[in-house]
Amino acid sequence: MSWIRSRVFLMLMMFLVNATAAASPQALKRIESDFGAAFMLPLSEFSPVHQLSRHGRELVADARMNLHDDLLTKGYYTSRVFIGTPPQEFALIVDTGSTVTYVPCSSCTHCGPHQDPRFKPDNSSSYTVIQCNTPDCKTGRCGDNRQCRYERMYAEMSTSSGILGKDQIGFGQYSRLMPQALLFGCETTETGDLYLQRADGIMGLGRGPLSLVDQLVESGEMADSFSLCYGGMEDGGGAMILGAIPPLPDMVFTPSDPTRSNYYNLPLKELRVQGIPLKVDSGVFNQKYGTVLDSGTTYAYLPPEAFDAFKEAVIQQLGLLQAVDGPDPTYHDICYAGAGTDPEELNKHFPTVDFVFDNNKMVTLAPENYLFKHTKIPGAYCLGVFKNQDPTTLLGGIVVRNMLVMYDRANQRIGFLRTNCSDLWSILPAESPTVPTPPPNNQSSPSDTPDSTASVPSNEEVGSVELTMALSTDYSAFSNQSSVFLSSMAAGLDILLSQVSLLEFWEENDQVIVRWVIAADPPEHQLSIWSAQAIVTHLQDHQVSLPQDFGTYNLRSWKFLPPSRWSWLLHHKNFNKVVIIVAFVGVILFLAATGSVVYYYIWRYKDKSPVKYTNVEQVMTDEETLLGDQL
Questions:
Q1: What is the C-alpha separation between 585 and 545, in angstroms, rounded?
Q2: Which whole-number Å values give the CA distances from 110 to 98, 282, 421, in the listed order?
Q3: Residue 530 and residue 526: Cα distance in Å, rounded?
Q4: DSSP class of residue 473?
Q5: Which PROSITE patterns match (predicted)?
Q6: Quick check: bond before 522 cis, omega within 30?
């Protein structure tokens, strides 16, 4: 919880910034700043608004990426990125308040124990160090050996510093955007919450020349837009899309002025609680840096007069709910019990909140957008909105849970649509199945490495990856724990359990040979060749840990299989249910057909007189009697 609570230091940091840099928009909670610049980023880091086409060709979006983690337990959301050749995988916090992407470097002298191994530049054939006095040295800072450096400090006093490098960065299995050579920070020192967090680093999505978004747009590979969708109070996770998507029906747009600051601001003019406007001046939300939307901040922070009015307005609507102490005595949280444990029923106990913007467009928040669960009292919830001693209004991730937020930078606007972020891929229009050219070396040599019979499909679409592995375990042990094997592989590769299927296994020379498959999920998508290659690399390098019962493993071979017309059904998580339903419908149809035939014959012969049969013995007796009479 230190990541979450450290953001409360904003009020102290704001006082410090007011004394040193009254015009600085950078001193905002999780929002970053340069070292030695009194928390100010130079104005040269403002990025121009890019058009939707460059270099004479139309841009298509697209990296569709899953989000992981949640606000309550971690205070952030992460996405997986792949850096280098071969790719090294990292979990990065998606942060619209940061402009630099960085991961811990293998040479780091003070980096925390994060969830993935540190980046090893020597293992990447495509990595280059950025030298000073070159166009790519965007920071203008010079270190040892004339290497370009970056330095960042956050308002909660955590810091990150290191050298700038450039390497291939890829975006996962649902990405049509191939890996690009992008600038990022190879971290050599980190302190504070950055040191303590489990996530590996930060994905900078703000405005600035080192931002991933700006780099992809400037290179002409992506439209100037991206979207985030955070999962709900119970679900966690979510989705991210790098690139443009068509605006969805009912999406509410409001302008966002890129000239005001490097951050994504909103022209908020009014807050309503249960439809009743707060009794504060509309200018309160436009003071200093205005209203800033920051995905890297956990909660929401209002100027003092707005917070006091908001708190009182919410409490007046709580009826019979009972006030209780917060989960942590260090903080004076505003908590109430008696609302039940189902978040979908919260609207029966807590009011709705409306954001009204300058263009009179309105976004309605559900209770989960301003409450967090009490961790010690079931059925109790606490206010996730706090007082900001600075007049800036800061809206963190809690405000946009279960809400698709489109950062349409090309049109200087931000869109909001309430939806189920855990099921976003089924809501969005399907992408055309375009997969770019695969990276080199997608087949291994048969001499001393696993044999790949995997030629890349001619249509450059990968429907599934078939893998054959040798495990140093016995047949009966594997037979009893095959489901554990699949779940361990899914967890280690950061894919869904529904994507993995066991085809067959057998015993061979005191080993168990396992043939299994990884398919896309949802099934209408395809795996990019980059993602398929990343899976193979992970298994080749033994980066997936299995329980001790399975012993060691080696990847023998793999195949990249093209999409099949029926593969989406065979690998679908509800395949068994579909088979049962089809069988049931078949039985019903058979019974209906049989009944129809029986009914037809009954109807056909129902009016005909029955045939009378005469006993043969009786006929013969009658004839003999008649003959005797004649004699």
A1: 44
A2: 21, 46, 36
A3: 11
A4: S
A5: ASP_PROTEASE (PS00141), PEPTIDASE_A1 (PS51767)
A6: yes
DSSP string for 341-382: S-GGGGGGTS--EEEEETTS-EEEEPGGGTEEE-SSSTTEEE
Question: Which residues, including other chains, have CB under 8 Å from residue 530's CB and lie 6 or more apart?
Answer: 82, 87, 170, 175, 178, 179, 438, 439
pLDDT band at 626 (very low <50, low <70, confident <90, very high): low
**Distance (Å, rounded) from C-alpha 624 to C-alpha 621?**
5
Which pair of structure tokens corresponds to residue 418? Answer: 């309430």
- Nearest-angstrom CA–CA distance, 343 and 398: 14
Q: What are phi and psi of 272, to 5 degrees?
A: -125, 140
Q: What is the pLDDT of residues 320-337, one digit of tens each?
A: 999 999 999 988 999 999
Q: Are 30 and 155 in contact (CB under 8 A)?
A: yes
Higher pLDDT, residue 494 or 609:
494
pLDDT of residue 389: 84
Measured CA to CA, the distance from residue 90 to residue 78 in angstroms comes to 9
Query: Distance between CA atoms of 351 and 514, rounded to whole angstroms?
Result: 55
How far is residue 398 from each of residues 142, 300, 310, 477, measured CA to CA in Å?
Answer: 38, 7, 16, 45
User: CA–CA separation, 14 vs 27, rounded Å?
Assistant: 6
Q: Is the dihedral of CA 112, 118, 119, 121 positive or negative?
A: positive
* Nearest-angstrom CA–CA distance, 474 and 105: 39
Measured in whole angstroms, the distance separating CA 22 from the mean position of its chain's CA atoms is 37
- Which of residues 608 and 124 earns the better pLDDT score? 124
CB 270 within 8 A of CB 356: yes
d(C-alpha 495, C-alpha 474), whole Å: 27
User: Please, what sign has the CA dihedral across residues 26, 29, 34, 35?
Assistant: positive
Rounded to 5 degrees, φ, ψ at 512 are -110, 125
Question: Are the beta carbons of 101 and 171 closer than 8 angstroms?
Answer: no
Average pLDDT score over the chain: 80
**Residue 568 — very low, low, confident or very high, per pLDDT cuts 50/70/90?**
very low
Bridge partner residues of 336 (DSSP): 323, 381
Q: Are 72 and 3 in contact (CB under 8 A)?
A: no
Q: Among 25-39, 251-265, 291-305, whose mean pLDDT is lowest?
A: 25-39
In this structure, what token pair is assigned to residue 474?
């016995």
Contact 521, 496 (CB under 8 A): yes
The four Cα atoms 264, 269, 271, 276 give a dihedral, to 10 degrees, of -160
pLDDT: which is higher, 32 or 74: 74
pLDDT for 512: 94
Asked whether the beta carbons of 348 and 261 are under 8 A apart, the reply is: no
pLDDT of residue 33: 54
